[in-house]
Amino acid sequence: MPPPPDSLVDHPLRRALAAGELALGTFVMEFATRALPWLARRAALDFLVYDTEHGNLSRAEVRNGVLGCRAAGITPVVRLRSGAREQVSPALDAGALGVIVPMTESAEQIAATVDGPATTPRGRAARRSGSHTTSTTTPCRSSGRWRRRTPPSW
């Protein structure tokens, strides 16, 4: 089944939810090795949630896990500590295809989370720069030329 028209990336979690099927996954809190996405694939999981709210994962572990999930065909999701742009943008820059924002209690909080980071196509920062997966293209302030940069280190 092709992805919905608003999706830039087809992934197992989106497909299962769109079809009304069961999606299986698990949380990753401490055991974040590079082999984990491949083990999840062998176990027929659809997604992994890298928990930075309660887990002891470093930003490098999350970034490596997200990239491993993308390579293995597993949907990477990151559970954040908050909906602040400083939390959401690095997860999306690393390539997460979903984020879980804890303690969100109102439509205004959801709107602020969606509008703040560099999400495509609605985020405020997305209107100023290029794609946010593993690298971005941004205008250089001094020369006005475009340059490629890697995402900021968490």
Account of the 3D structure:
By secondary structure, the protein is α/β, with parallel strands linked by helices. The chain has one domain (12-149): TIM Barrel. Helix content is 31%, strand content 16%. The protein has 5 helices and 6 strands. The protein has helices at residues 12-18, 36-42, 59-72, 85-94, 107-115; strands at residues 25-28, 47-51, 75-79, 98-100, 136-139, 146-149. The strands form 2 sheets. Strands 1-2-3-4 form a 4-stranded parallel β-sheet. The longest helix has 14 residues, at 59-72. The chain starts with 11 loop residues before the first helix and ends in a 5-residue tail after the last strand.
Features:
5 helices, 4-stranded parallel β-sheet, globular, 6 strands, alpha/beta, disordered C terminus
What is this structure, in a nutshell?
The protein has 154 residues and is of the alpha/beta class.
Spell out the blueprint of helices and strands:
Blueprint: H1 12-18, E1 25-28, H2 36-42, E2 47-51, H3 59-72, E3 75-79, H4 85-94, E4 98-100, H5 107-115, E5 136-139, E6 146-149
Parallel strand pairs: 1-2, 2-3, 3-4
Antiparallel strand pairs: 5-6
Helix pairs in contact: 2-3
